[in-house]
Amino acid sequence: MHYWVQAAREPARTTDLQPAAPAATVPTARTTPSGPGGPGGTDGRRALVESDLRLAACGFLLIDPADVDLSADLMELGFDSVSLVQLTGRIGDTYGVEVEPVVVFDHPTLADLGRLLLTGFADAVDARHRKLTDGTADAAPADGDEQP
């Protein structure tokens, strides 16, 4: 049986992911003229989310990002309640959204969390993708810990 331990984290998180900027200021384009497989398309967005999730998780798991199994249950990967709180905080910091740790009950794998980001909060993913392709943001997700 697993128990949640609420970690001290400011500001308090809400129960859903919420875009940091109003939707009117973040275009909702899903693909660019380069097409779905191009650098700004659906495949590029999915690759960005997967890379961000791998980088966020590897700091907790102390493994290489390429070795992070996106389809494995987070608890089976080695996360506990405290590290899940920190992981959801890191995801929120990376995308400028608020992630309540209980979201992992409905999205127990990194792949599930990635689909949630891509489908429910595409504006935040698109904004990050644009910043990276424009060269106006750091490539690595927000992170307070050293990566292995």
UniProtKB/TrEMBL annotation:
Span of domain Carrier: 44-121
Region annotation (Disordered) ranges: 1-45
Transmembrane segments: none
Compositionally biased intervals (Low complexity): 19-34
The keyword Phosphoprotein appears for this protein: yes
Superkingdom: Bacteria
Iron in keyword set: no
Alphabetical keyword list: Phosphopantetheine, Phosphoprotein
Protein's UniProt name: Acyl carrier protein
Organism of derivation: Kitasatospora purpeofusca
